[in-house]
């Protein structure tokens, strides 16, 4: 980690909530709203979120699965998202969510007319704006966690060994 976190403190809670309480708490509220108030289906939401986690390299975000009323995406869904262009499992909307996330995070200047035609054939304008706000949140906060090394300090059990090997 690039920042000093007192012994016994959760790194993400400390950095976001105590180091910069005004900005951090605003970030927490925005991040929370993305999860609590999204109208996107769980699979569309996770397709986009998992792709951003992959691009950001955030170990914690890659391991996290959004839970809606006790339901999460299926095991291996992250593999389908990584191969969205050839996946036979993803719906068209989930495939588009993954593609948009990838392109938004890696090449946003080249989101061309052909892409937008496909996107708006499947998503309403409101849904595109919502998805875009979600992408912005995940890029910003996932990268913050990754760059400062918080993602390795706060990994979920499935990635503990993997995170240690990448530290």
Topology (SSEs and partners):
Elements lengths: L10 H9 L1 H17 L4 H15 L2 H5 L13 H6 L9 H15 L6 H10 L2 H23 L2 H4 L6 H7 L1
Helix pairs in contact: 1-2, 2-8, 3-6, 3-8, 6-8
Would you give an account of this structure?
- The longest helix has 23 residues, at 125-147.
- The radius of gyration is 16 Å and the shape is globular.
- It is mainly α.
- Helix 6 crosses helix 8 (125-147).
- It has helices at residues 11-19, 21-37, 42-56, 59-63, 77-82, 92-106, 113-122, 125-147, 150-153, 160-166.
- The protein has 10 helices and no strands.
- It has a single domain (11-166), classed as AhpD-like (Up-down Bundle).
Please name the CATH topology: AhpD-like
Distance between the termini: 9 Å
Domain module tally? 1
Number of beta strands = 0
Encode the helix/strand succession as letters.
Answer: HHHHHHHHHH
